[in-house]
User: Fold these one by one.
Assistant:
Number 1:
Amino acid sequence: MSFDYKQRAATRIEDHPVGKLLDSLRMESAFYTSSVLTRPWGMEMPPMPNCMMYHLVLEGTAEFRVENTVFELQQGEFVLFPKGDGHILSDGQCKTITPLSELPINSVTERYETLAFGGDGEASRMVCGAMLFQHPLAIKLLGILPPYIKIQPGSRDAGGIVSSVAELLKSEAQNVSVGAEAVISRLADILVIAAMRQYLAELDDSQTGWLNALADDRIGKSLKLIHDQPDKHWSLEELATAVGMSRTSFAQQFKKLVGNTPMDYLTEWRMSLAYSSLQLTRDTVLAIALDIGYQSEAAFSRAFKKVIGKSPAEVRKDYQASTESTH
């Protein structure tokens, strides 16, 4: 019997809805920095909208301050800042905090950097970075994530992953060679997904909210239809028929699991797509409107401001100003 590799490659892999969601969230590297920090040292990371920032301690220790919280990372520990909140990291003693923009960063490639910073004291070695989410579902996901997620080597499933990846990252960071950027990028993706997966797996149903809807056979299918075809002029009747439910039962079950009506969700989903496009592309407002099913720029702009609270032009201007301030 011959091995049909084409059929095997086309076979869908069944996964938990959370796994499917994380797989759909395409991340783009903003930067990766391999750092050697010698006491005394202290630095400040500015807020980075739409970015997840992370730090992995390969050797030594580091203290973090985010809002009114202070915690320390030991060797092999990892922290993720899902919402891109600004924070301070230091040796725990240094009083002089240097902004990110003033650090003596050496650019190896466009996105891979090295940093040697501090005094003549004991050294800590870290890999730090930021990732940009381009999928609008991230907006909803970030709503249920905390300001930071800390992973220790001994913590459940993610702990073992962090330990293994940390050793690989340590080797790559110490011996920068051909392809190092690509390797570090993939390893960092694994760290981020492992951290989010562990956190989400530990939440109960009352905390996961709309994620439960993704697990429902029929409501999950309707969400996929909306996500995949946002430009289609869906009606409540069409969605209900597509998932084999009556109009009334579908509307009631959808609102129970998702939190709003199918038509309101469709509008919010379209606006989420538009929000991302305004920030991450140079497409005109009219082109974005047409892509998500609106026939005129005026109609789209009215709907967008009603949902987002700002006009398309304001969102694009604010994002451009925030990205310029981090450079």
Note: The radius of gyration is 22 Å.
Number 2:
Amino acid sequence: MSARTEGVGVPETMIARMGDIERNLFLKILKVTEAGAVASARWIGLGDRHAADDAAVEAMRRVLARFDIDGEIVIGEGERDEAPMLYIGEKVGTGNGPKVDIAVDPLEGTNLAAENQFGAASVMAMSEAGGLMHAPDIYLDKLIVGPEVVRYEKKTGKRLDLDSAPEYNLKIVAEALNRRIEDLIVVILERPRHAELIKEVRDTGAKVRLVTDGDLMPGIAAGIRGTNVHVGMGIGAAPEGVLTASALRTTGGKIISRFILPAKANQKSEDEITKEYDKFIPRLLDMGINDIDKVLYTEDLAPGKDTIFSATGVTQSDLFEGVNFFENDGARVRSVVMGSGSGIVRFVDSIYIIDKEETPIRMR
């Protein structure tokens, strides 16, 4: 029997692996991030990050309200008293559907959008109830790599170590990618707390790419070849770590992380660290996090078996172009949507037109 007739093809096999959430909501989630991206893109370059973020939040919430889901925001704009919409614990959807946990960053890189800089995006992940860690708004120390490194670890027994020097980890990554360390590009947030890390990475010969805001999109890019991002390192926000992990569940990459209080990360006084500890520990315990020093891996941050992830570019990034507007309120947006159950990843280029007679569809 020829390969043409000997059974189901690869797409059919992957579609059959979809869970209920992925099967029913895979492309619908795209509508949420596209709405957020287009709304916030109206504020690109105007210097008002709050207005850009508010526009994304409102648009995404309106679209979510139409979904037949019983959804709960587990990672959002903050606690209820800090955020009027898409706050942690907020219920979204009609209530007439599956129970889902939602992690959302309506505008990853608010400053980037306000200043029309590289890397802003509208991002969301959705999973079955309990499928996404309820992460507090503190920091994670992160090490992010792609699937080739994961495969190399399994083959050789060598393991990345969050507590080891950058040289140790970058040597493993270089071997896994069959490159020299000097050919690696490591993305790090440009923060005073990273001064020593940046020096140590550069001392290995690896190339450092500093980002002023937002380590989420570079972290996702590290799990996808062709983005020219090989490693993500450093301390960034914990909620973004969960969103990164939800994408890595599909791409096969890996995040190794550990919670760290902002005061400790930024080398504040012992009194400030103690005050912050007393503030956050009750919240951590309420979220089921009993050991702040525990090393957390991809499956710890995003343990769901049926997880979908979507990101839509607001400004240009490692993965896609940003929003383009044209006459009569038309818009063109680029997104990625992926499902952990099937392993399907789609890069989507969408054009929105209001007046079909007046606005031609443009290829370029």
Note: The mean pLDDT is 93.
